[in-house]
Amino acid sequence: MRAAPLQAIVRVLSAGPGTTLQDAGRHGYLRFGVTAAGPMDRLAHATANLAVGNPAGSTALEVSVGGIEVTAESAPLHVAVAGGEFALSLDGRPLPSATVLNLDEGAVLKIRAGRSGSWCYLAVAGRFAVPKVLGSHATHTRTGFGGVGGRAIVAGDGLGIEPSPAPAPSANAIVAPWLDRPLGTVRVVLGPQHDYFADDQISAFLAGPWTVSAKGDRMACFLEGPRLTHARGYNIVSDGIAMGAIQVPGDGRPIVLMADRQSTGGYPKIATVIGPDLGRLAQARPGTGFSFEAVSIAEAVAALREEAALLARGVVVEPLVRTHLSSEFLLGLNLIDGVVGLDAFG
Amino acid sequence: MTLVASVPATALSAPRFLDAGEAALVVEFGDTVDPAINDRVLALDAALCADPPAGTREFVPTYRSLMIHYDPLQIDRDALVAIVRRATGAVVEWQGTATIWTLPCCYDPALAEDLDEAAQILKLSRDEAIALHVKATYRVYMCGFTPGQPYLGGVPEPLKISRRPTPRPPHPAGAVLIGGGLCVVAPFVMPTGWYVIGQTPERLYAAERKDAFLIQAGDALRFDPIDLATFRNLEQRAASGEIVARKSAA
Fold this sequence. Notes:
The structure holds 2 protein chains of 2 kinds.
Chain A: E1 8-15, E2 20-22, H1 42-51, E3 60-63, E4 68-73, E5 77-90, E6 93-95, E7 99-103, E8 108-124, E9 127-128, E10 158-162, E11 172-175, E12 185-190, H2 199-207, E13 210-212, E14 220-224, E15 239-240, E16 245-247, E17 255-257, E18 264-265, E19 269-273, H3 275-283, E20 289-294, H4 297-312, E21 316-319, H5 327-334
Parallel strand pairs in A: 12-20
Antiparallel strand pairs in A: 1-4, 1-10, 2-3, 3-8, 4-8, 5-6, 5-7, 5-8, 7-11, 9-10, 11-21, 12-19, 13-14, 13-20, 14-17, 15-18, 16-17, 16-19
Chain B: E1 3-4, E2 16-19, E3 24-28, H1 35-50, E4 56-61, E5 65-70, H2 77-90, E6 93-94, E7 99-106, H3 115-122, H4 126-135, E8 138-143, E9 150-153, E10 168-171, E11 175-179, E12 182-186, E13 190-192, E14 195-199, E15 220-226, H5 228-239, E16 246-249
């Protein structure tokens, strides 16, 4: 009997609530009532994966504002973080919020909520060695599907990575200007049930102004703003729900249904957030203000095409010194020679 | 499953095409819970599942509409609408999946937590309510809410009850519920605004089973009353992966 090949492990030292494993989603089972789950911000999720050489839809840790602290066990790990503007540090030395780096055994990568953003993604070169449910690692905690036993990540979890990644070049900043997305205006396609609202209510819906409520989670983003009224009642016979559907229940407060939404539902859906704008909305912190803009299917598809072209070009990294960093940050780098190698300064 | 083109397509109203964003199209045949409308949804679903147009991802049948998830970079919205129009013109009658499930159901007070409350609201005795529930044959209009959960139409009139004004605490997996004039079997523990009138030992979703999902839209379903001892026995057998419901052809 040969010894099992050495497996690198992501060891979770601490984790706030709401951090889960997510791949591109559990697709194909909506007809049986299975929620797809998947990343809240698919562009950031893809960016982190591409930065370590994984396919865009690979499994990665979706880190909430609760943050996470991890180390590598048994072998070094090649990891990338991308998403909102989170505060990252490696053994106490700060790093840019979108970074690809080599995590040595025992080195501690700390990710905490930063200046903006609600989610970031920690991708690891290789594959997470956890069982799939219906072909996917995507975690849906309400039904206990996927991830680690269907639950959020907790301190002490050890996630095996196979194959063990090759040592990577030293830390580099990920050049991803597309992750800097202030909320401003969110584009929607009206419908499928906008005919349940009079024209003045459609106008009020578009104009807002809306703010993101603190009540949201992976299932839904609750909005605060004008109360909308229904022209034809608010109970409809349940039908399918797409991600980004904006349902308006009886109290007139719109709810945007996100990654962990139920497959079907029974409130009129006034509009649907276009796919390319969902990540931007998901990243908005509670209290962020915005309005909606109605676009045509053609305009929505053009935005989708742009997003696809952007990812097709791949992710570019650059030495840390070339990014705009504070003097404290540069001072930090000088102190960790050997962790972030000198070649990072090119 | 049989599709029969016996009624001229022109005799039926054309479906409405509604957009749910740039990647999902709703094909709506009506806005009520009606077996004839659901027939058309399931007929279109069957036709598309048998030969999925390139660029489509998933079909989700519900009471009165079919949601088609698609990749708009692979198939244009108008091209998809044209394909669906042709498909709805070709198949107009749905003959069902020809599957009838008989699901064991225990109405013992230990499991049927809300049966007395519901019977009282309906002005029925407990036994009358059970007899009505057992007598009916139900139609699976759709699955949704949680994995493997069927929504059942065909509830006898005297057993039709409104939803609770406020939700009750979570019910166990396998709970049989009535509310909103319908019946569901709930495979996952969830809070609910419906009434728990029984429990089945069958697992409608079981990850390790070859057929992870037991029931699909278009199936028919009946309940077979069992006592508490039988329930406990069947529950153990179901836990080991056995299917304890009976399946028969229509």
